[in-house]
Automatic annotation (TrEMBL):
UniProt organism field: Natribacillus halophilus
GO biological process: positive regulation of sporulation resulting in formation of a cellular spore
InterPro entries for this protein: KinB-signalling_activ (IPR024164)
Keywords, ordered alphabetically: Membrane, Transmembrane, Transmembrane helix
Protein name: KinB signaling pathway activation protein
Spans through the membrane: 7-29, 41-70, 82-101, 113-133, 142-165, 171-189
């Protein structure tokens, strides 16, 4: 992949992530637009675009970090089969952590653990779907690495939002998660296409 393709991937990912964050923010975050008025709306959209762009930049760092991690792990574990098993274990571990520790940290007396299972399960299903399409477009061995990247790496990138107690608000969590999902999905699905056209 040449420099031109890397630059294209960088800016297109940032643009799509920013748009994803702005759209979901405009739909969900009412306080930003509560005062009304044209300039308040413009400011709100620009602010959300900035947040989305910043979050998508984090997603890009996570993607290239995973590419490096994958190469190092393949040399460390010697066989792809063993590394795939480790990735499956880590997916299960992160799934458990994502609902259980958030339940311990934020649940009130009348809340059940079931409510904290919804988002991790939806994210797991989404990651599996993206990995399935990645596998269809490339090869059978791409499923587990793509699944791992979309679930585990996205969750790690999402961690700063999850750890801030003040924003344990589903709206803010989605404002942070949406650009990550958009950017990570785009990077994963665009990478092999860009390489094929290089």
């Amino acid at each position: 992949m040449n420099t031109k393709k890397v630059v294209f991937l960088f800016f297109s990912t940032m643009f799509l992530g920013a748009m994803g964050g702005a759209i979901i923010g405009a739909l969900l975050y009412d306080p930003l637009f509560a005062e009304g008025g044209f300039w308040n709306f413009i400011f709100g959209v620009l602010w959300l675009l900035g947040i989305g762009a910043a979050v998508s930049a984090t997603a890009q760092m996570g993607y290239f970090a995973y590419l490096l991690l994958n190469r190092l792990a393949l040399s460390l574990f010697k066989t792809k089969k063993l590394w795939n098993r480790v990735q499956i274990f880590l997916i299960a571990f992160v799934f458990f952590d994502l609902f259980y520790f958030r339940y311990l940290a934020y649940a009130t007396g009348d809340e059940t653990m079931g409510g904290y299972l919804i988002t991790p399960t939806l994210l797991l299903i989404y990651a599996a779907l993206v990995a399935y399409f990645k596998q269809r477009e490339t090869h059978r061995g791409a499923f587990i690495p793509a699944f791992f990247f979309m679930y585990v790496i996205t969750t790690i990138e999402w961690l700063p939002a999850l750890l801030v107690t003040e924003i344990n608000d589903s709206v803010w969590l989605w404002i942070y998660l949406t650009p990550l999902l958009v950017a990570n999905t785009y990077q994963l699905m665009a990478h092999h296409r860009i390489q094929e056209n290089a």
